[in-house]
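Entry for the shared binder. Reason: the reviewer on the internal report wants the predicted structure included alongside the sequence.
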Amino acid sequence: MADTLEFNEIYQEVKGSMNDGRLRLSRQGVIFKNSKTGKVDNIQASELAEGVWRRVALGHGLKLLTKNGHVYKYDGFRESEFDKLSDFFKAHYCLELAEKDLCVKGWNWGTVRFGGQLLSFDIGEQPVFEIPLSNVSQCTTGKNEVTLEFHQNDDAEVSLMEVRFYVPPTQEDGVDPVEAFAQNVLSKADVIQATGDAICIFRELQCLTPRGRYDIRIYPTFLHLHGKTFDYKIPYTTVLRLFLLPHKDQRQMFFVISLDPPIKQGQTRYHFLILLFSKDEDISLTLNMNEEEVEKRFEGRLTKNMSGSLYEMVSRVMKALVNRKITVPGNFQGHSGAQCITCSYKASSGLLYPLERGFIYVHKPPVHIRFDEISFVNFARGTTTTRSFDFEIETKQGTQYTFSSIEREEYGKLFDFVNAKKLNIKNRGLKEGMKQSYDEYADSDEDQHDAYLERMKEEGKIREENANDSSDGSGEETDESFNPGEEDDDVAEEFDSNASASSSSGDGDSDRDDKKPAKKAKIVKDRKPRKKQPESKKGKDPNAPKRPMSAYMLWLNASREKIKSDHPGISITDLSKKAGELWKAMSKEKKEEWDRKAEDARRDYEKAMKEYSKGDSHRGERSKKKKKKQEKLVKGKGDKKGTTSKSASSKSPAKGMSDSFKSKEFVSSDESSSAESKKEDSEDEGAASPPPSSEDSASGSD
């Protein structure tokens, strides 16, 4: 048998990545040379404890375990090479090359075994997967649960970052299986250990993300957050930026720590650590170091004894340890004089800070956008009201951030800031504030159809039409109350003494008397179109079918109580804003369901309107017949009155102008003659009264 075996194109698994190279087996041991880096791994034959042959993704693999607990994995073998390797191990290493296939049942429950530096999850006697404990960076425990976090592998395209194990409770007294599991992991894992004393400790600091109150212990190389439920150890190397931001109320301060990679809590990732301080809270701090060590390590940036505001002490210590600058707001000032803008992002209210080199939004969820990654910004009208507007930011990667419900008074200041930073504005127009150019950016998203905005516009038009209808109905009532008075005046003029005199007088009447009736007729002609115009618009019929509601209004009526219960004490204005944001964020499938309901309501309305219009046409025909009948009666009475007045004027002698103005006698004789004529009319159906009766009545009255 040969003393050596050589294999080309063999892959060694190191921290989840596969490194190709050459593998050589000799009497002295196993040697692997990385073809990329030239690094050589040498395993002495005396150190080998076990060899396992198994089928893997790249064909077949060889796993070697050493006596000191190290594990080496090599993949890329062919199935035919098993016999050759097995014989070599027996002859030179005195080991039996065991065959153990991986379990591929797909079960997620089994047994965990700890062997040296390896955690093996087995089902029966077959392993499912193995985890080198040297790759574990954090181990946290919960109720019946253990979470393992791993170091990030920059060489691999995809890295495993977290695994969670459920540990069922057992009946054994005095032994907690969760703690036992965690201790086995921590004894072999590369976990940050809090060795030595902390430089300083800040007690019970209010933390917004992750939410809660935490004790912060400052160590030389990492930051330890200790809470009632969770502990976090944050290496200073993961801190990207530090921000110190004043709250809008000028009484609180935000201290923001940007992290990469983020800290984890279950499935949640926190890229920002946000602390909230009160400006009135002071502290006296003493570092757990002697003065010489403080001077040597921090070079005058910190002293052993310090005092001042709590937020100043925390930011000063963090700046010295992380060795990064603290970013504060620049020269931007909003409408109220604050260095931030109140707005909403993803249905949560917060503060947007325009910085010298970017924007940062706090606090839920925190967002930091640098100017160099912004493609363009956009000013758009608010979806629920015209008193506010939206500020949209789109990055070069295509990610869009929309900060909504910004007061319109902030527009000028924000526009000036964006313009001064030379950011690309998508809908650049006249910069004369909201008074004139608000509509310039109101319809800025013309290239993208906003169905929700179209619905809101349509509902606004419907509300305007309803308001116009109600105003027209009230105007019609005033016209109707005014019209009868005018009509009575016109009828009275026919029986007036002046009217009869002017009709009986010939060319001898003065021009002034001729002009008066003409003026009156002209006034009547001018008024009639104005009076009759609203007649075309009838008042609302209470029996008429109601207009159908849109999909949004149907959804709002169904969801109003739920929104109130989720946000107790919410005002009507805030409720409408919240509803608009929820509707805008709703999925297309859910909106289609309400669209179908709105369509059904519209069909029902059209059907009801058809039935209502049929009944309305019958009512219209009856009213027209009644109106014609009334017009005939009025016309017949007018003809009778005209004949009686003419006969009276022809029989009466022309005694001069003084006789024509005997109004009392003339009216009384006229009334008596008209009374007699009415009696004869009733007997003779429309025959004119004889002249002698009117003459006798006139002489009798004289």
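Summary line for the report: Residues 341-421 form a domain with the PH-domain like fold (CATH 2.30.29.30).
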